[in-house]
Amino acid sequence: MSGWLDNPVEGVLLDITGVLYESGEGFGTVIPGSVNAVQRLKEAHIPVRLVTNETCDTRSAVVKKLQSHGYEVCEADIFSPVPAVVSLLKERGLSPHLLVHPNIEGEFSSLMKGKPTCVVMGDADEGFSFANVNKAFTTLMEMEKPVLFSLGYGKYYKHKGKLQLDVGAFANALEFACDIKSEIVGKPSPQFFGAALKDMGITADKAVMIGDDIVSDVGGSQKCGLRGVLVRTGKYIPAFENHPVVKPDFIADNLAQAVEMIVNAQKAKKA
Question: What is the pLDDT of residues 120-162, one digit of tens each?
């Protein structure tokens, strides 16, 4: 048995894009074997939560996309930065200036009251123009105590077969210019992983995170006490396997291979 499976796996966290499907035109392309892999985990009574930094769509839109590929999921299965930051803003009584994708702007409508008291930055895609980023900068500089929320902190991701800059790159620019540090809502935030674990009712040492991002998925989960598995799909590049800091507990060709090992290990312990 592989060392990463010496301890029982009682819950699995999955990234979405790059693990369940590849982004692209329309609903993208399902990754072969992944639909069956998720089903196998459920049949083995291993709870699954989808932990994503997806901020180009609402959770309902993500569910629709996944269901179109054959995944049996609901909104409660998905942990996304958008509802998390909305809840946080309500709790702290903050009114945001938004630099996010148009698809999710409506999620913040009830919070847009008067002069902004924070900036919320997500994956704005084409919205990351100089004018828009500069407006976020000037908005922060006008605040007595500038507050910046970054929905995730990735360096880049894969979209339509090509790598492109992720929100972390733009958050870093504002941090540098404003001499502040952003509050990360999403991976690799410990609170984000913790919320999914709490929902499953298990501790970190009983869980595995499977993703295609060596830093946010693998490194972030490992810092929280989970086992981190890297898949060679999505935005994976060979250099991830020799990362100077993050060492995955296992590197799988795809989700199907990782799940096969998890399920077989469970059967072996019951035998």
Answer: 999 998 999 999 999 999 999 999 999 999 999 989 888 777 8
> Cα(32)–Cα(19) distance, rounded to whole angstroms?
10
Residue 229 has phi, psi (to 5 degrees) of: -110, 130
Residues in Cβ contact with 159 at an 8 Å cutoff, skipping those fewer than 6 apart: 23, 24
The three state secondary structure string of the chain is CCHHHCCCCCEEEECCECCCEECCCCCCEECCCHHHHHHHHHHCCCCEEEECCCCCCCHHHHHHHHHHCCCCCCHHHEECHHHHHHHHHHHHCCCEEEECCHHHHHHHHHHCCCCCCEEEECCCHHHCCHHHHHHHHHHHHCCCCCCEEECCCCCEEEECCEEEECHHHHHHHHHHHHCCCCEECCCCCHHHHHHHHHHHCCCHHHEEEEECCHHHHHHHHHHCCCEEEEECCCCCCHHHHHCCCCCCCEEECCHHHHHHHHHHHHHHHHC
User: For residue 97, what are the β-bridge partners?
Assistant: 119
How does pLDDT run across 46-81, given as a tens digit for each residue? Answer: 999 999 998 989 999 999 999 999 999 999 999 999
Query: What pTM was estimated for this model as a whole?
Result: 0.89
Q: Which residues of 26-61 are buried (b: 16+ CB within 10 A; e: fewer)?
A: eebebbebbbebbebbeeeebbbbbbbbbbbbbbee
Residue type present at position 114: G
- Determine phi and psi for 226, rounding to 5 degrees: -85, 165
